[in-house]
Amino acid sequence: VQLQASGGGLVQAGGSLRLSCTASGSTIRFNAMGWFRQAPGKERERVAYITTADITNYADSVTGRFTVSRENDKNTLYLQMNSLKPEDTGVYYCNTHSQSWPWGQGTLVTVSS
User: Fold this and answer.
1) How far apart are CA 108 and CA 82, in angstroms?
2) How many CA atoms within 13 Å lie on the side-chain side of 65?
3) Of 28, 33, 63, 88, which sits most exposed with the smallest number of CB within 10 A?
């Protein structure tokens, strides 16, 4: 399985980005999927996940600002990030909710103050 995340970049605080993550070699359709991020000097943490029934859950730090969605026919997971804050800076990855697939490269998000 390969996971390819994209859509990161440099944005000012208050701005928005939409991340995408496409899987190859397996299907996301039968998996709860999550977005994770690793801030500089910190451990990787889960920020959002979506179940196979499209039930979503968010970390407290992103609730109300981030929205996770999935497009099974395209084998792609999305993360819409609004009202970005400097503390959202980090490398963002997708994986199954249980982190069972190999990690991809991730996509870097940098939020300037």
Assistant:
1) 16
2) 17
3) 63
Of 58, 69, 66, 68, which is closest to residue 84 (Cα–Cα)?
66
The DSSP secondary-structure symbol of 102 reads P
User: What pLDDT is recorded for position 68?
Assistant: 98
Reduced to 3 states, what is the DSSP secondary structure of residue 22?
strand
- Kind plus residue range of the DSSP H or E element containing 71: strand 66-71
CA distance 12 to 102: 31
Give the number of other Cβ atoms within 10 Å of residue 6's Cβ: 16
User: Could you identify the residue written with the tokens 């009202």?
Assistant: 83
From first to last of the 113 residues of the chain, give the pLDDT tens digit: 999 999 999 999 999 999 999 999 999 999 999 999 999 999 999 999 999 999 999 999 999 999 999 999 999 999 999 999 999 999 999 999 999 999 999 999 999 99
Provide the phi-psi class of 86: left if phi over 0, else alpha when psi is between -120 and 50, else beta. alpha
